[in-house]
Amino acid sequence: MAISLSPLNLPASADASKFADFGRQVEGVNPGSLNPEEFEQVRDALYKHSVLLFRDVSLSPEQQYALTKAFDPQSESYGHGNNQTEQKKHSILHPYIKTIPRVPQVQLIGHGTVYDHEGIPEAVLKHAHHSSFHKTRISAEDEAKGATRFYRWHMDAALYDLAPPHVTTLYGLGVPKGPRQTCRYDVGTNDELSVSLGTTAFVSGRTMFNILPPELKSLAVRSRVKYAPHPYTWMAPAHALSTGLGLETEGLELPFDQLPPWEESKIQILPMAWQNPVTGELHLQAHPCAAAEIFVDPLPAGSKREGALYPDGAHLTELKEVRDILYKIQRPAIAPSLVYPHDWNENDLVLFHNRGVLHSIVGVFGPDQVRIFHQCNLAASDLPVGPSAADIEKWA
Ligand SMILES: [Fe+2]
Predict the structure, then answer these.
(1) Whole-Å CA distances, 206 to 223, 355, 382
(2) Which residue intervals define the domain TauD/TfdA-like in the entry (predicted)?
């Protein structure tokens, strides 16, 4: 049976012209039991449209794992590794993830206390709150009126040892409803975004690249980002910007010699722009919090030097400079008009191209609001592919 695709409902805040290719609702197939032909259509749609939504889905953890794995059959372990071992307990991700014992690639995430769930007798879940990560926080008074923030813009990736997952699947089993909230940027502009309670916000890495001015496109296609070893432990003492798009530079990161044991060979240096495996387009994909250094290649022979940034290449090792560049490149794409905040319904399944979008947790739940989600992504069997020779010629 052929799948049917329809555009997602965009919020009034969205600039529809920038979302023409972004996001589709999929109907006509059961994502838990796709035949090979249906899977190929879903795969093609995912890479073309970045986010796919299936409504009213019934999906076991085994089926969710199988669906996620189908995008990369050689992948096996969860994106951050199957064993969330002792040495990872200081990672900032540790409190938010509970592994489903039967299918360790699928994680239980959400908010509140969940009992007798998929072999877990009791789990206390915590929806990440910006006060645990941002340097500044919204006042209790404003929060009571519904103000919130993007918690952290990211892709799902260990960025050390394990390759970034191609796809993440997010399945909403328990979706508390409540008044809409207002996501604030708190950067001195009036930027804000009306969101449903507990939305997941997405921005397109393709749009992030496409809207850049020529000198930043040139920089992006010539750059590689070097990530810190054990980045989520490294950044644990640091504080984020109020946009959730990167960190303040205050010298708080853990010194490398205080991290769990690490090896140079497992450190990741990844292109700043990644090729889409189906469309060939470039997606700007960098994790602004985990980045430690940037390598810039010189302009290719014959390129225009006028106005070019780092025309002779560079190796940037000052965190402030690295972060300022990434912010300049990424900030335009999280403007309210470019954010798709998904309005969750119970039994929604969202698949997203983790190598093609950034996403963020948003919102604040009350103590009695129980949110139950299953999340799966798998450390990939390959590394992202950077700009082609033709891309360099076109953009550098
Ligand atoms: Fe995530």
Answers:
(1) 16, 10, 20
(2) 22-375
Closest CA to 3 of 51, 54, 67: 54
Look up tokens 């918690």; give the residue: 151
What is the Å distance from ligand 1's center to 354 Cα?
9
Q: What are phi and psi of 208, to 5 degrees?
A: -55, -40
At 50-84, the pLDDT tens digits run 999 999 999 999 999 999 999 999 999 999 887 65
Q: Ligand 1 centroid to 34 CA: how many Å?
A: 25
Q: How far is the CA of 358 from the centre of ligand 1 (A)?
A: 8
Number of H helices, E strands in the chain: 8, 21
The alpha carbon dihedral of 247, 252, 257, 258 has a sign of negative
Q: By the 8 A CB rule, do 356 and 47 touch?
A: yes
First and final CA of the chain: distance in angstroms?
A: 44
CA gyration radius, the chain: 20
Residues 6+ apart with CB under 8 A from 183: 148, 149, 150, 192, 193, 194, 195, 199, 201, 341, 362, 363
- Amino acid found at 254: L
The predicted-structure confidence for 242-267, as pLDDT tens digits, reads as follows: 999 999 999 999 999 999 999 999 99
C-alpha–C-alpha distance, residues 295 and 272, integer Å? 10
How far is residue 123's CA from residue 130's CA, in Å, rounded to a whole number? 21
Q: Is 301 exposed, middle or buried (0-12, 13-18, 19+ CB in 10 A)?
A: exposed
Helical H segments across 186-248, by residue range: 205-210, 214-222, 231-234
pLDDT digits (tens, 9 = 90+) for 284-300: 999 999 999 999 999 99
Eight-class DSSP state of 107? E
**156 CA from centroid of ligand 1 (Å):** 5
